[in-house]
Design goal:
The structure is a single chain. By secondary structure, this protein is an alpha/beta fold. It has 15 helices and nine strands. The protein has helices spanning 8-26, 28-36, 39-46, 51-58, 62-75, 91-98, 108-118, 120-129, 140-162, 169-174, 188-196, 209-221, 257-266, 291-309, 323-332; strands at 79-81, 86-88, 178-182, 201-206, 228-232, 242-248, 268-279, 337-343, 347-353. It has a seven-stranded mixed β-sheet with strand order 5-4-3-6-7-9-8, with helices on both faces. A two-stranded antiparallel sheet has the order 1-2. The protein is globular.
Length: 355
């Protein structure tokens, strides 16, 4: 193809998109630096400051801080008053960048992105061999980032918007039902369940031992250690029967999701339900070609598919499997009554009843 055959406007828009992505990617290490060194926190506490004042308060080098502040201001992640030559964070910027307990916090995304970059070599080799990358071999930042990334959404939605769509769940949980959180990671979702339903029997299981260790520490810190039973186990080795078995953003990561669903079917009480929370997706791939789809397909390529392909069967559903494929997995496992009960821009909730 010669240059004369290129559509100049299409080319310009494509190059602009690349530059937008490059700009967004270039800020990743700066966001981590701002987070890890407490720069966002200092800005939130100090109000309007110049770079010298911030350097004194943070005990960090002024020149590095000044360039960092310019980058944040250029991105719209900080504010700059050109008359005063001072920087500040708005209440919204504080909620997103400086307060890890805020329901609007998004700093975990930068941990996940950093972990994904560190996984590049392993995944590149997997492209050649068709094999997977064992979950435990992922960059440790991935585990921390996953917990931080999902925490705000789960704190905002899990017991307020998602679980209320499961028929009779609140009544049964308040009466002492048993709830198993499969693939619980650091146990943030498990703790939300245990805190909300103190009469319920709550268990958390994960294949990654260090994540379970961290979950136990966090539960103890929150005063919930006596109300949660954590164990290192995969989706086909946990024990006991439960009224509810949940797969929160993890079924698509499993090598044998059908086997995991069958195992759950066999470990449910007769009137029990499996609860899936999965990234929102449409059944047709082309309908996912948007901002969320780009993010989830990228995370899936670097994390979800390699993890699944490292396990037995290696079905590799991917993070954008779509409701029809997920429900077909549940149907194959024996569930007859499966439906999407809640859906928003980022997540969908599927209930599968045993009877």
């Amino acid at each position: 193809m010669s240059d004369r055959e290129l559509n100049p406007e299409v080319l310009k828009q494509l190059q602009l998109k690349v530059m937008q992505d490059v700009s967004a990617s270039a800020i990743i290490p700066l966001m981590r630096i701002g987070d890890q060194l407490g720069i966002f926190r200092h800005l939130s506490e100090l109000g309007e400051v110049n770079s010298e004042e911030l350097a004194n308060a943070s005990n960090l080098d002024e020149r590095y801080l000044r360039e960092w502040l310019y980058a944040m201001s250029a991105a719209g992640f900080a504010n700059y008053d050109s008359n005063k030559k001072k920087f500040s964070l708005s209440p919204e910027q504080i909620a997103v960048f400086a307060n890890d307990d805020s329901p609007a916090s998004m700093m975990g995304a930068y941990d996940m992105l950093t972990g994904a970059i560190f996984n590049e070599e392993k995944v590149k080799e997997a492209f050649k061999t068709g094999k997977g990358v064992d979950y435990k071999d992922s960059c440790p930042i991935c585990f921390q980032g996953t917990a931080r990334f999902f925490k705000p959404s789960y704190e905002k939605n899990l017991v307020k918007s998602w679980l209320p769509k499961i028929e009779n769940l609140e009544k049964r949980m308040n009466s002492g039902a048993s709830f198993a959180d499969i693939g619980c990671g650091y146990g943030l979702s498990t703790m939300i369940i245990a805190e909300t339903f103190p009469n319920a029997k709550v268990c958390g299981y994960d294949i990654h031992g260090p994540s379970i260790d961290e979950a136990k520490k966090l539960a103890k810190k929150a005063g919930l250690e006596s109300r949660i039973e954590y164990s290192t186990a995969d989706a086909k080795s946990y024990e006991g029967n439960h009224d509810y078995i949940a797969f929160f953003d993890c079924l698509h990561d499993m090598g044998d999701p059908v086997g995991a669903a069958k195992y759950a079917y066999n470990h449910l009480e007769d009137d029990g339900s499996v609860i899936l929370i999965e990234p929102t997706a449409n059944d047709n791939p082309e309908d996912n070609f948007n901002l969320f789809g780009q993010m989830y397909y990228c995370f899936s390529t670097i994390g979800c598919v390699p993890t699944s392909k490292s396990q037995e069967v290696g079905l590799a559903l991917g993070a954008q499997a779509g409701p029809s494929k997920l429900i077909s997995v549940l149907n194959e496992a024996g569930f007859k009554n499966c439906k999407v009960v809640k859906k928003n821009a980022s997540n969908m909730v599927i209930e599968a009843r045993k009877n």
